[in-house]
Amino acid sequence: MRLIIWLGNPGKNYENTRHNVGFFMIDLLREHFHFPEWSESKHKWLISEWIFQGEKIILLKPNTYMNLSWEAAISLLSFYKIPSESNLLVISDDIDMEFGKIRFRLKGSHGGQNGLRDIIGKLGHDVFARIKIWIGRDPRYNVSDWVLSRFQDEEWKILKTESFQDIAQKIENWISEKK
Q: Does residue 19 register a pLDDT over 70?
């Protein structure tokens, strides 16, 4: 069993912002792989479960703010007894590289991303897979204003095609290689 959690912020104010690129990507992924519709839980998240290559995959979309995403992650890891070291994949935004690029790692630091920082802190280790989606950086903005800004049309096109295809392939590889 695998858990894939996408970091973002809930609510209309954060829809389509750079910081919520993970939520946008998880919705595309759910459709691409034909996961069922989101189910609301009595907890603070949306969930969709699917069998891929004979393995149960759980998509998790927290309904908490980015810095509290660990609550949903830790709860599901514990409930399903999923070992985070091999079966957890966290997907988040990152501002420190070229826009639209994707990086996959099996372990590593939070790189300044607060949602990742909190998950690492609660797990007590950084040995879990992660995908970072680079949302770029504009030096004319302070960081908090930039991550809460909206994408331009050309950026959406890149995200929906190149970036998404790269993410989908990396997730398929991660699932396949861990069997």
A: yes
